[in-house]
Each structure stands twice: as C-alpha cells, then as structure tokens.
Amino acid sequence: MGSPTASDELRARLEAARRLGALGADARDLTELFHALYEETSRVVDATVFLFALYDEASETVEVVRQVDRGVEHEGGSFPLGKGFTSEVIRTGLPKVIRRWATEGPSVRLLYGTEAGELVSPQSGLVVPIRSADRVLGVISVQSYRPDAYQDADVLGLEAIAAQAGITIKRLRATEQLALEHERHALQLEAVLASMNDALLIVDARGAIVRLNRAARDLLRLDSASLVLGQPLERQRLEQWPMTAREITGALVPVIDALRSGTGVDDMEIELRSAERRVLSVSASVLRPAKGPLQGGVIVLRDITGQRDLERLREDIFAMAWHDMRTPLTLVKGHAEILLRRLAAGEGDATATKEAAASIVKHADRLAELLTTLFDVHCLEAGLLALSPWPMDLAAITREVTESLRLTARHNLNVVADTSIEGEWDERRIRQVLMNLLSNALKYSPEGSTVTVSATADARTAKVSVHDEGIGIDGAELSQVFRRGYRAEPARQVKGDGFGLYFAHGLVAKHGGRMWAESAGRGQGTTFFFTLPLREANEADAPVEREVP
Ligand code: ATP
Ligand code: MG
Asked: For residue 93, what are the CA distances in angstroms to 49, 134, 166, 339, 416?
C-alpha cells in the first residue's frame, strides 16, 4: 500500500465532516449523546479516559453525565465548581491541554468518582468547553496514561466535537422544555376533566375508549378493572359489565360510528330503562388536527333526567288541570247562570237560590284545593318547598284529623295514640300527610270496615300508621305507589290523580322521616307508616332550624 493520495485524504476529510455534522443528531437524551461523543472522540484523539459533563450555572455545579476509563463505562455524578482543570475550563471558557500531569496538575485525580483501584494516574489531558454564545454549557475531557498524548491539532478536533455537542444539548433542552410544557397542559386538562359534572369519553380513530373522566366512570358504574382502555368495544368483556354500562355503550355505537367516519353528533337523547329511568343527552365532536388524519373524538354525556322529569311534570300538571278543573268550572258556571236567571226573573225561591250559591262555593273550593295541590307538587319537585317547623303535638294532631273525618266517613275509625308526642314539625304539612293517608284508607276500603290510626314514639322517632281492611296492594306495587301519577289497577274505579302519596312521601322525607306501605296482598288490607325524627334530648335548647327555600 502506498501513501494516501490527495483524493483519499479529501475523501477522509469529507467523511469526517459528514460524521461531525450528523454527530448527536439522533440522540434522544444525554446518555445517547454521551455515547455518540465518546465514539467520535475516540476516533480523533486518545480517549483512554473520557468524560462528558454539563455545568449548572444556578448551583455552580458540574454534572458529569457519564465517563469511560480504559473502555469501562461509569456512572456520572456531580461536584461543585472547584480548582481542577475542568472547573478552570468552565470558568475561562478556554480549552486546556495538560501535557505532563505530574508537573502541571493538581494532586487530585481528574477522573471523577471512579475507583481505579490502581495507583496509576493519567499523565496528560485535554479539556474543551462546550459553549453556546458566551455561556459554557459543559465540557468534554479526555486523559491519557501517556505523557504528551495531546497536541494543538487535537484541541481543534475536540473543539469541533464540542461545538456539535452544544447544538444537541440545546435541542435536548428545548425538547425537555416542550415535554414539561406538554405535561403542564396535560395536568391542567386532567384537572378540568376531573372537575366536570358531565361524563366525558375520548375515543381513538378506531373508536376504542382511550380515556374517561370520573363522571363517566360514575355514570357507567365501571371500576377500572373491567374497562380495558384502548380496546374496541366489541373486544371488551361486556358480559361482565353492569347493565347500565352495557346499555349506555350500546346506545353509543352509532355515535362512535359517526365519529369514525368523521362526523359529530349534536344533543342526541338516549333513555335508559335497565335500572332506574334516566335520560342522557349525548354530544360528540371529531378530533382532527389542522393537518393530518382523524385522531378520534370526544363524547360528552349529560344527565338530563331531572330536566325531562320537570317537563313531564308540567305536562302532567297541565293535563290534570285541564281534566280536573273542567267539571267544577262547568258546574260553577251552570249554577251561576241559574242564579242569574232566577234573580233576573225575580223568582223568590230562597231555598233554590241558596242551593245554587252553595254549589258554587263547593265547586270553587274544589277548584282552589286542586290549584293548591298542583302548586305544592310543583314546588316539591322543583325543590322550592320550604317547611316551617314549630313545636307541635303529633298525637293530638293525629286525633284531631281523624275526628274531623268521623262525621262523614262511613267506616269505623279507631285511634290508638300516645298521650302526647312533642316535636318540631311543620303542622300544616303533617296534617296534609295524615289527610292523604286517611282519605286513601277510606277511599280504598269498603264502607263499614275499620280504619285504625296509631301514633307512638320512642326516644328518637315518632311513628304513625294508618291501617285499613280494603283492596290491599300487590307486593310488586308496594314501592310504586309513591311514584307520581301511579295508580294500581283495582284503584282506578275510584277517582284520583295519583298525586297524594307522592306528595305525602316527599313531605315526610323533607322532614327527615320515612314513609312505606305494607300489605299482605290484593284484598288483604293495607297499612301505611311514616316516621318523623324527634329532637335529640341534648339539642333541646338549640335554636330551631328552618329551611331556607
Ligand atoms: P289522589 O290522592 O291524587 O287523589 P290517588 O289516591 O289515586 O289519587 P295516591 O294517594 O298517590 O293517589 O295513591 C296512589 C295509589 O296507591 C292509588 O291509586 C292506589 O292504587 C294505591 N293506594 C294508596 N292508598 C291505598 C290503600 N290504602 N289501599 C290500597 N291501595 C292504595
Ligand atoms: Mg290519594
């Protein structure tokens, strides 16, 4: 082999320039950069000992990324800026060649933190700064166990490598900054999602749920174990999901299909029937960056059951008002017209006139009563019903309400009550509850049968029951009767709206009590119970709490 030709040399230089240009370009972190730097440095100089360190200005600390000693790689570490060559280069920003360590160097070992185990120390060294404008970002340092291992040309070679290292360090820092910023954004987003009352699901381009917030988990009643994020719905173990979750995801299939094809969905309504009735409003929007393919979509589910129920209540009330007020109104008008004709004709039949006037009063009363019921039910439902609790005697009120019915009732009415049950409740409302239960007992049991009312109390609770020997209630319907508008089949022969128990139940609940029904079945009679909390003995002197509407 002859001496290298001019073109060989040019090729070698171009090759070196190319390698240098690409140095560290692929490094994803400082360790990868360290390896790239070591590889390139060992090509151009003696890198028996190699060290790559960064300098943190704020804490004046030198952070050694990693180091190599005779081919063995060691962990990094950190040390405060001191008197050694590395520190000197960082301070001055100028490269440093140590030709003969024994005569020039300080008595410290340059290699940071490794246990060489032998008494050999480097004989010569070269440290170059990694600079960015006028700041020193760090150093690259090489040492040799031979004296005089480094020449001026080596300084230039290592400086070229250090320049590339500077570019990569800045790029990595910018990426890190970006990553931190992303993380901050992600955390903010997380907080927003968690605090949302609406349930939110994020699906990927294939339509698999990849993220859901707390409200969505609550809505689906799923624990994290049973929903595999990122797995398409058809591959989830749906058979193990609760009914509600299956019903909701079932209803979401067309929404997800729409998202997959790049279309959003606006306020679609789904009604759940598996457990309690619920109405959900679903909206979905496509996630698509300004450029590039579809990323998936966001689905928001809002529980609008309350809203729909209120709307339905208004419709019910309107229908009921229309139906129930028409008759008394027609009667009032009819009697008023008769009265008017009589007066116009100068007819002097005082009895007939009185009767017509009495009918007007009676039907007007019925109208007023109906309006009050409608108003009360509406207030209860809208959460506007306020109680005015005041000291009262439940036993006395129970006797009084029962007595008031004795005259008109064609039943035997029995009252079994303690002498007195003192408590603080809204007397007008408790009277309404008692009236509701008693009028039902009379309405749904045959004339001549017995209705027994009892009122007792223990230390904490007052309890009232109304027992009849009437049509009874089927087991399955025992809890249904408290629903608004519910009327059992056999009850429909008697007039009613199905509002009484709903309202009474609501009133008792508002007092902190409970109402329930017991019956041995159809034709077996029924007992309705309600309880009311008594004031605790030790709260006897506490001020009366009033509910603010
Ligand atoms: P309203 O009280 O509004 O005039 P209503 O009596 O039908 O009408 P609720 O008092 O709410 O309505 O009662 C609901 C249903 O519960 C009744 O229609 C009936 O089916 C059943 N029910 C209530 N009380 C009794 C009872 N004592 N015995 C048997 N069934 C009853
Ligand atoms: Mg009733």
From this structure: 21, 8, 13, 115, 102
Answer whether 438 contacts ligand 1 (Cβ < 6 A).
no
Ligand 1 atom nearest the C-alpha of 494 is 7
Nearest CA to ligand 1 atom 6: 496
| CATH classification (class only), 15-176 | alpha beta
Q: What is the pLDDT of residues 19-30, one digit of tens each?
A: 888 888 889 999
Residue 159: its pLDDT value, please? 95
Which pLDDT does position 331 carry in this prediction?
87
> Which CATH code of 1.10.3720.10, 3.40.50.720, 1.10.287.130, 1.10.443.10 fits the domain covering 308-382?
1.10.287.130
pLDDT, residue 545, reads 44
pLDDT for residue 353: 84
pTM: 0.51
Ligand 1 pocket member 377 (CB < 6 A): no
Angle at 539 between CA 538 and CA 543, to 5 degrees: 155
* Domain 196-303 classification at class level: alpha beta
Residue to mutate (ligand 1; options 501, 507, 522; most atoms within 8 A of CB): 501
Q: If 0-12 CB within 10 Å is exposed, 13-18 middle and 19+ buried, where does residue 23 land?
A: buried
Q: Which residues, given as ranges, of the chain have pLDDT below 50?
A: 107-117, 537-549
